[in-house]
Amino acid sequence: MKDARCCVVARPPTAPYTGCSRKRYETRFSKSDRTCSLWLIDPRMTLSCCTRSALVWAALSFAIGGISSRIIIRLVAFGGLAAFSHFVPAADLTEGVTLAQALALTLKQNPDLAAFSWDVRSAEARVLQARLRPNPELGTQSEDIGFSLSQTTLQLSQLIELGGKRSARVREATFGHELARLDYETKRLDILKKTAQAFVEVLSAQERVRLAQENVELASGLIPDIRKRIEAGKASAVEQTRSEVAVASARIELDQAKRSLITARQHLAAQWGSAQPKFTRVVGDLERVNYLPDLENLSLNLYRNPEIARWEPETAKRQATLRLQQADAVPNLTLSAGPRYIVETGEWTPVIGFSLPLPFWNRNQGAILEARHQLAKADDEKRSAVTRLSSELNDAYQTVARTSNEIHVLKESVLPGAEKAVEAIRQGYEAGRFSYLDVNEGRRTLTAARLQYLQALSDYHKSVAEIEALTVRPFDANSGFSK
Does residue 441 have a pLDDT over 70? Predict the structure, then answer.
């Protein structure tokens, strides 16, 4: 199996924009980013970027709702990222990074995923070992050494496995390899989800820095007017002190936002194994919000998750283990043959024999009973996995539902109202109808609403990534939700 992987980048169908307006909250990105659609390819083969007709949809569908203008990530049944490596070399990620680039580079260079791939190779080696037959044994035996009646026997022995041990062993190892492959897919889903969520966090942190900078400018922009009012005798010196305190507080918030951005960038770079981020920013659109699909329809796709799909081969593997333990209860036959040299007569005579253990006490009863219990345990473990993933899906769905409504209310009512209030208070302050406390309170209300809106967008996209990882499909694929 190769670690090199390849991505195919294609232009998605044109769809009308259904997200929020970008009056003050726009994150700009290039035209090519707006039309980017990324298909994540399986690592076991390489595929040219030009070979699109051979792609087959399979286990993973992982679209982050609208980020980088509806980027759709797909795991395909064959292919790799090798042909895509020229598009996102780590050394060249020194400016803006799209979600497509971040995900492709993560699949190619994530250290956890690279380490996990060795488990698949180890499982392949176990299948190879299981197919091997026992080696013959060569031995010699001498009797009455030093006497005229001494005899020397050269013996070749071969263990004959009875009871179908070899076939049971191979079957168990084969299902073990299938489990290792599904566990690898589970790990890859988890890493893609974490990368997408880390990308969203960086995008949100960038916006928080911008909002904090605007807050500093808004707070400090009032100081000249306050000084003029003090000089004219229309305000007391206390207002200047309050304004300076507000500016200092805003600068502290700006510093905190910048440090949070540094941390978020480091977390994102760590997804592809970089100790320090070389990129300056990420590019994407947080304000793209898709129509909310039905929870029941999403739940139907939960069984495509490899964490649940793995229980079919897991059950078969445990059945094979039981069959192997039952086969081990059957004694193996050892055949031996060879020549014997008799010193007294100077002749060679053939010798043959066999040995067979007598299963009087140890008939592998304990191991067989353990295998039966492990097989019975599989049903309970599968139900537990289904229940756990269903609960996680419901939690993520409720977060998406909550944040979708929150985003709509904030965008349509709260933000426009807060902006109008700030503008009206500012004009009233200049006319002497409002105090600085009113201006400061209006500014804080607007900043809080903007941060609440940003947090809702961030929570929405992170939960969408969680849902897509659980259901292994795009959030709005084949549903018409974005139409």
Answer: yes
